[in-house]
């Protein structure tokens, strides 16, 4: 079985898996990293949203062979370390606004929100309602109002 | 609203019915037509449903084309 | 008769009953023999018995006014509530195992608040867990009907209050002072001359060697410092760090990923697997077995199970509704509608007749159904989100041919429920697979399984006929007709067991009984009847959040607006004139005020209102909708449908006593999102040959408006 190596939450790791296995299952079933959730494995619900090289992506729809040794994969578990704190400002905002209900979609929501804010910053602007409309992570509990408030607050605390 | 009792009521399901009704009533007033088939968009599909077999579709492989 | 509607103004809640409002309420419980302090409560001695309260109800209200679904559940819970215990550990934490399921609704937070309040303990010293299936609880382990707060509010507080009192007495004895000289604050006891002791340090001393009855006093609401104040969820930190564990996240040794290839029609059966050897030889696959409704595949990863599903070559038997479609079901519903029965009316009476159709709608939560099963020759262990774990345990034991006590059922927190987790289909299937494979399995249904083969809120029609004359409504008749809803998850058992206590007559079915216990018109509309009839089609149905009310109330309120128009009245004014209940009137007035009812709106946009009372609460909603062509036909990314857009909503709720305002607000937000989905886009489409064609939709992003995402599963 092929061995794949990449950086996961700050550590270089190796894992044996068939080439075509989607990264979500490599993370969850083989590596025991369960923060990214399974909701559809069709790149629709976005529950598994994580970061690759700082950008949001859905590991349910990426074969493990397409991950390069130099690629840095960050899941919700590794998010705080990217800012050298116990909690990322976006996670703090999520707590402040008591966003979660059942919580199933929230790791993906937070990862998507952080990437969306960074994307806006990279374009030299603050996050707008139009940006928030582009977030497509599904929350079946319907926490969207608080999600929007929290993303805006988290964006302020993320600094420039 | 301020508390009207010492006893809590059930709240988890409470908002659905009146909000559903309010939306339907607002739709009727906005369009002049009372909706009678719900959901209002039921007749409109904007996508081709996945085939019924295999019962669980294969996952995509193009995830790296949609990063942001 | 407005002031007598017990659904809102229950006798024991009335201001006339001043006992609780002015003073502390005395309650009874038990100190239970245990190594550290443990308290149990029996609420039979503390809370009014619904049967006794019935005597206070005058007039001829509808059944739900005098005895609603929650009362039935309270009645069923009463004899066994004494087994509910709060334990104080020697580290100073209070432990309470909730015989309920947490699925996002926030009950663990609310229970922690109750314990913290009465025990004078910080929230972080209260540990709330979900109890395993406990057969001795009989029917007091069903999470549904928005009943958890109503049924557990007094018992849980009682247990905590007794624990606090016992600690005070223990400290007093220990220090040789009067109990009245000992105070409690934040988990610490304080006595004269600066003495202090933590709860934990006295947990063993406070324990009793034999179980004894004791009494204590509950705090009066004016003394509350925790209850009634906004609190964040107790599991929020675990959620935002990805640490909260759902069934699929559990690491049960040997329980490898398992999925099922399923037939093309609803409830189709497996006749044969035609390529078993090839499937078993696929990469990562460990086991393949045929089961009742499919081909079960176990492997190293769920991804490889999905790979194998693509290759399954099987012969399928027919399902249970293969010839049905939206159109055939609707025709059957119309043929089954009960007749109207309005009495003979004067010649000048005018009539409104209307019929509404509600499509099938999935009640699937975001977390796909998941269950872990480890079935051995003489025992079994199950992990799953189950709202009725006792029924699951009984059924699975029977299915496996094991005694009930050989089956251990663990209740895991769920990623949403909305009615879905009342059923244990997935746990039972996991048990079937584990038994056939002889290995532990972690079974996950796929998203498409959830929509195509999972439970659905059934299609229904609601016919309404109103007779009115001058400014009065003489009769209001509503005939709700539905594909049968499966209540075979415990509520049915409650109804059978307590049939004699329920004030609805005759040989009503479970569904008819539940309909009668939940539905009542809030208006003074003269002779009022609301009836249900069901047609026996074997879809996989279940109730969805709020069971019948969304459809019944939507139909009623649309007709109310019609009536208002015919009488030349504004919808809010009309409701003010006809509402029976003061609490409903109050929330309506507040919603109209906050939502600026009647303000000028552009053509193609409008406001709408709806009111509802249930579960002893009253709520009014005012929304604004935008139906202008540029909005309806707006471009959206991907495969979403567009359509009208809800641009604003005001929800005013009178919950009686609000335990956690922040949690209540969250439930209102969630309910609104469900309502938007039901009104605009969320439905299942049944095509001939029983294909679930399109399906799940969800709604998103209020605040700036609402966009629907239609998903292609």
From TrEMBL, chain A:
<feature type="domain" description="[2Fe-2S]-binding">
    <location>
        <begin position="75"/>
        <end position="152"/>
    </location>
</feature>
<dbReference type="InterPro" id="IPR002888">
    <property type="entry name" value="2Fe-2S-bd"/>
</dbReference>
<dbReference type="InterPro" id="IPR036010">
    <property type="entry name" value="2Fe-2S_ferredoxin-like_sf"/>
</dbReference>
<feature type="domain" description="2Fe-2S ferredoxin-type">
    <location>
        <begin position="7"/>
        <end position="56"/>
    </location>
</feature>
<keyword id="KW-0479">Metal-binding</keyword>
<dbReference type="InterPro" id="IPR012675">
    <property type="entry name" value="Beta-grasp_dom_sf"/>
</dbReference>
<dbReference type="InterPro" id="IPR051452">
    <property type="entry name" value="Diverse_Oxidoreductases"/>
</dbReference>
<dbReference type="InterPro" id="IPR001041">
    <property type="entry name" value="2Fe-2S_ferredoxin-type"/>
</dbReference>
<dbReference type="InterPro" id="IPR036884">
    <property type="entry name" value="2Fe-2S-bd_dom_sf"/>
</dbReference>
<protein>
    <submittedName>
        <fullName>Isoquinoline 1-oxidoreductase alpha subunit</fullName>
    </submittedName>
</protein>
<keyword id="KW-0411">Iron-sulfur</keyword>
<keyword id="KW-0001">2Fe-2S</keyword>
<dbReference type="Pfam" id="PF00111">
    <property type="entry name" value="Fer2"/>
</dbReference>
<keyword id="KW-0408">Iron</keyword>
<dbReference type="Pfam" id="PF01799">
    <property type="entry name" value="Fer2_2"/>
</dbReference>
